[in-house]
Design brief:
The structure holds 3 protein chains of 3 kinds.
Chain A (H helix, E strand, L loop, with lengths): L9 E9 L2 E6 L3 E6 L13 E7 L2 E7 H5 L11 E7 L2 E7 L1 E9 L17 E7 L7 H5 L3 E6 L15
Parallel strand pairs in A: 2-10, 5-7
Antiparallel strand pairs in A: 1-2, 1-8, 3-6, 4-5, 6-7, 9-10
Chain B lengths: L3 E5 L3 H13 L3 E5 L2 H11 L3 E5 L7 H10 L8 E5 L4 H10 L3 E4 L4 H11 L2
Helix pairs in contact in B: 2-3
Chain C lengths: L1 H32 L5 H21 L2 H19 L6 H21 L9 H14 L60 E7 L10 H10 L3 E6 L17 E6 L5 H8 L6 E7 L2 H29 L6 H4 L35 H24 L2 H4 L3 H19 L1 E3 L1 H4 L2 H12 L3 E6 L4 E3 H22 L3 H6 L6 E10 L2 E8 L6 H10 L11 H7 L21 H10 L3 E7 L3 E9 L4 E9 L2 E6 L3 E5 L6 E5 L2 E6 L2 E7 H4 L14 E6 L5 E6 L1 E9 L13 E6 L5 E5 L1 H9 L13
Parallel strand pairs in C: 6-8, 13-22, 17-19
Antiparallel strand pairs in C: 1-3, 1-4, 2-3, 5-7, 8-9, 9-11, 10-11, 12-13, 12-20, 14-18, 15-16, 16-17, 18-19, 21-22
Classes of the chains: A mainly beta, B alpha/beta, C alpha+beta.
Chain lengths: 166, 121, 740
Amino acid sequence: MSEEIPVAQDMKIVTFTLGGHMFGIEMTALLEIREWAEPTPLPGVPAYIRGVTNLRGNVVPVVGLSERLGWAPSVTHPRSCILVINLEGKQAGLLVDEMNDIVTVNMAEIQPPPELDGADTSMIAGLVRVVERGSDDEEKKSEKGAMVLLIDVPALNLTRHMDAAA
Amino acid sequence: MSKLILTVDDSASMRMLLKVSLTAQGYAIEGAEDGRQGLERMQELAPDLLITDINMPHMDGFELIEEVRARPEFRGTPILVLSTEFSDEKKSRARETGATGWITKPFDAEKLGAAIRRVCP
Amino acid sequence: MSDDKELDEIQAIFFEECVEGLGTAEEGLTALANGEASPDVIAGVFRAVHSIKGGAGAFGHNALLTFSHAFENVLDKIRAGDIATTPEIGQQMLSAFDVLSDHVSAAMGRCDVPDDGPVLSGLNALLDAEGAAPAVPAGGTEKIEEPPAETTGEADEFGFTPVAIDLDDLSGLGSDPLVLDGDDDDSDEPWVITFKPSRAAMENGAEPLLVIRELERMGARVTQADYSALPPLRELEPEQGYISWSLTLDSMIERSELDECFDFVAPDSLIEYHHNRRAPVAAEVEVVQEAEAAADVPAQDASAAQGEASTDENNKAPIKMAAVPAAPAPPPPPVGEAKVADVASQTIRIDVTRLDMLLNLVGELVIRNSILNDRLAVEDQERVELPQLGRLTREIQDNVMTLRAQPIRQAFSRVPRIVRELCGATQKQVNLEVQGETTEVDKSVIEKIGEPLTHMIRNAIDHGLESAEEREAAGKDPVGTVLLSAEQKGARIVIRVSDDGRGIDRARVRQKAIDKEIISEEDQLSDEDIDNLICAPGFSTAETISNISGRGVGMDVVRTNVEALGGRIEISSTPGEGTSFTMVLPLTLAILDGMIVRIDGQRYVVPLSHVIESIRPEKGQVKAISPGSEVIDLRGSYVPVRRVSDLFGISANDRRSPEESLVIIAESDTAGCIGLMVDAIDDRRELVIKSLDQNLYPINGLSGATILGDGSIALILDIDALVSTASASGSRFTLKGMAA
């Protein structure tokens, strides 16, 4: 995502929770959503690469998004899932706590990212409010919506660390 | 039934260009990539017209034409020679060898069509 | 538009042909410069440039057209012997070749059009010295010019002299009644055309009548047919021309169009056309009506009499000659395909993605075969059908693999030019020797070693070789030699770039590594270790100065690229004598015969080609010689034993004793053996290699991964890397990803 936000353009994002925060990622980057399965660990890679997994015959790295952002590793549970994304032509899986929804946001409403405790905000493109949809609950409707941290997908670049020793 | 033209040129792209142009004009096209293969295909197909390049490996255009004309069944087959330029010398040589006419490269589709009409009944 | 797309596809093929042609031309011109070019070779170079020129014109690449035209003309003269093949000419041709190559790249949109001024002038100078070259054609026909007045010595029966008249020349024959006077191209008067073909006009399968048909298409009308020369039937020669026709044609038609129309038959016919005055035309019209009526019958007789040799013109028109059933035009190629099936040809072009798909499928076939094998009960495994199926599968696999195999020559093709350029830039003299270019490697290897190879050659010439003066001072031949070689060794391809230069200055390399904090002062390094520092990340910076002897630019990138292919780089050097860089690459990149082993609950693959034997050690057979270092007593000699978990820096859950483990003795190509301690051996199987590079990046110690039958992933061990790491005892620096 670029810093210049075009006026009045809509963008579909998929939202999920991680470490108690709500994040979102552009739909166009999302390839599929998979159930969590323990990946095959790789030697000599940074801790946030939890291993590789078989995605329809392809060997795809699984990234602990929590660690990548600088937080403690996620604890996996039955609703954990892997978001398979297109990361600059390559595929990667992101481990998240729980899937949320697909929502549309107006790009003009995206604000700059805030400071986050201990997180590397270079990978966060911005902050935007989303209105949760499809709720018959009167209470929910009256809520103002949730704040979603938008992930800057290219900034997740897995090769950034390259020269660091294990 | 459309007329069959055999195009002989060592450049696949040139053969394709010819094919595209000629098929659009209603001809059926077969190809060969050098004189030797051209001769084989002549005998195999007995086309209505032969269009051949000159500079080709193994057997060049002039040799091909000579070989074709040496066979009685092809004495009356119209033959067009493809080349990038046609000096008088070249035209004479073409005729001497047995070509009926010539086409310059790059060819104009219309002129190509007209040339074919002038030699191929 | 589908037309444009079609043209783009054809142009893409033209570009491929250009690349091939450039390859042929370069080889031939190099031979020419060395004085070794046979006439055939020169003809081949000529043809290659000629073809490029032809397509350049067709696709509108004018700069390329102009240059290749001049180049072709010079080559034509060389081919004809009009220009001597001196070494200077040879060099000039090579320079021209380089420019041509750039023009082709520019036409492909890969770079800007080169400035060919100097080289082009050089070519034109050669041409001028030899006489004028034919002009670049504008396309289309040329004027009908005056050919020789006589045909052969024999007197034509009718005193007929086939001559075409150039009206601008006003040099018509006396016998021509309709002499042109004040003739004006811009005249509104219609054309009056006279056309009398001779016997010669009907040779070569020509049909003058077709010309008349064409004229009629342009709007001409036959006004008169003069058949007065027609002999009685019994004397009639079918292939002789007796009739002359007059036609009128609207003045709107350009003279050039008429020229074109008569182009083929011009030298063999009496042709004349001009704009006529009104009056005579009118007079002719009356004559016409009579003449036409009269002409009809004899004309038909005449044509009937002309016989089969001239072909039955008038009767033929409505009847289409069906010499052969016409083949239906094949549908245009679908989007995205670059496939052309040459008719009855020995080669076929195939889209590489299709080949890869086929390869994947074959890989799957291999896996399924293995799994099938496993699922069967033991007694069924013995049935004869299974090994047969296995053999068949392996054969298919081998054949498909060879489809992707290409001679490595393609990867070497750029090197001569790089050497030429570097020689120019560094003012050094270099002799390039190439060996083993016919060695076949997988296509993907060719695609990916281009860059590493370029780096290595650059380094050899820039850093490795000394200047001519230095070399002479050292007692060496002032001309340095760079040897580029490829050979197949077992399941590997070995590609080497060696030079006879100054070798690696290890002291300076060591110092530089210390300065860059890659190693420390106290580190003990073998010569080999120091050499390898050159490839360490961080060692090479963006320096372009060559004052550090030894290599530096880009070598870590080279190593990364090579490792991504599952290969490795070896360096060896002798001070004062030279250095060689060797790339060792796997021969087949896709399928591997592997041994599946279990270590700490994880499965790994050991390439079977490296496995010598596997042992369950007896008590005491594995000895610890120092903390963390074990060896196994193998029939009297000691082989270092490593646990994979140690090599990968993974802490094992519990360290098994050697007696509870298996030790696999594996041999690396670098002539070192290692005993890998594993928990169990699962299986031996053929596996499809999945590159880690596809979605991640290369990891030292691994040459890829594979997907087992149950869908789980097993990592493939890179024995060579593991052996060398094992032997680098106590080194603090590591190649990335590996713990000490």
